Amino acid sequence: MKSEVPSVRLESAQLQRLTALERLARHCEQRARLSQDVWAAKNRTYPLTAGMPGARDPWLTPYIVPFVRFFDDPRYEVCTLITGTQCGKTDAILDAMGWRLDTKPRPQMYVGPSRDFVVDVFEPRLMRMFDETPHLASLMARGKRNKKLRKVVNGVAVRLALGGSPASLAGDQAADIYIDEFDKITGGVKGDADVFSLAKARADSYADRKIAVTSTPLRGLVETYRDETTGLEFWALAEPRDIESKIWAKWQSGTRHHWAWRCPHCECLFIPRIRDLKYPEGATPAMARRNT
Fold it and tell me: The CATH number of 27-261 is which of 3.20.20.70, 3.40.50.300, 3.30.300.20, 3.40.190.10?
């Protein structure tokens, strides 16, 4: 009686070869050249449980569009994004990271403010983005290679690091570094460990490295001034020794771009301030939306 084992082994080898060829074909596929915001609009979808379910629209928070486009701009190595709370900073990071892994894959590193934030907040959102983006989902390594703090997508590593742990920032190299909630990592005061330098060192081997830093400032007071040429009210330069917020010091050391809105009535540009927000006294958010 003849054994069927060799035949089974042959079929298994053929299946493995086909799987490898399909994976190679996906890696070699020519991807359309899209900006980061256009990529997000075409590929990312919010679940029904989200506040605004459906296809992502980055232009609902237009101030993050220049931030994500920085990752394809050869002029700058570091970009600092300062906004209020719940203004789309983490989604902007996901847009940039997803675009990079899908179109121009290279190692990524995300640095969060605490283990709880990285494991319970960011990692589930990252996995949801991978699973809801068909091309990325097909390129993601599953099983033992899919760890809580280290993923492999499109052949490159995605490392999730803890800002308060120097050991967590050591090891893997990365071409793109995302430091989220920078003031929460450093405590927002002077004298803490230089998380920025530790993370930046992970990209030393890449000539075109990109380091993005985002946060809501936790403390400090800065004056404003009105520009005589444009009439816009900008944040004034503060003495470095007087700045209590690390993210503000980082932003002030750069080009200091401000986001300006266009008034829907007179079409003049203005930089929004909290005093510009008008709503009925005692109104709930829903009431304010209806009556303003």
Answer: 3.40.50.300
